[in-house]
Design brief:
Pfam families: HicB_lk_antitox. This is CopG family transcriptional regulator. The structure is a single chain. Helix content is about 35%, strand content about 15%. By secondary structure, it is α+β, with helices and mostly antiparallel strands. It has a 4-stranded antiparallel sheet. The longest helix has 19 residues, at about 40-60. The radius of gyration is 18 Å and the shape is elongated.
């Protein structure tokens, strides 16, 4: 899943980069971290996201499907995140929190399978394989 990450640049040499992930705010979770080096920002952001997701799921009040990111442009326009002077998106694999994988046997027309496979080949950054594509499509439909 892609998350918007806001970064507050340090004001002096003794201050770390501030990291903020606003997607969790609507659940009353603050997902923040810091990094001493710019190169550590993605690592620290990913670690903070995984920690908050684990905490949310352990509370029993939320599931992975509840998490939605509004996009960095929405957050950047929000005065609450004005301290963030730069934004980026980070892809964090949350499949470990979705439960045990199960193999299923489905029947689809061969033309549809070819279309799916072709779509996946053209979108490797978004889909790992056919199963991942079908799982994402199912999540999309179930979220309606």
């Amino acid at each position: 899943m892609f998350f918007s990450v806001g970064v507050e640049s340090p004001k002096d040499a003794d201050t770390a980069f501030g990291i903020c992930v606003p997607a969790f705010h609507r659940f009353d979770y603050g997902c923040v971290s810091a990094a001493d080096e710019q190169s550590d920002i993605p690592v620290m952001a990913r670690e903070a996201i995984l920690s908050i997701v684990e905490e949310m799921l352990l509370s029993g009040a939320h599931s992975v499907e509840d998490i939605k990111d509004a996009g960095f442009m929405v957050y950047a326009a929000n005065a609450e995140y004005a301290h963030c002077d730069s934004w980026f998106m980070i892809d964090v694999d949350l499949t470990e929190f979705e439960g045990k994988q199960q193999r299923v046997n489905i029947t689809l027309p061969d033309v549809l399978i070819k279309r799916i496979d072709g779509f996946i080949q053209g979108n490797r950054s978004a889909y790992k394989d056919r199963s991942h594509f079908l799982a994402q499509a199912a999540r999309h439909e179930l979220a309606k």
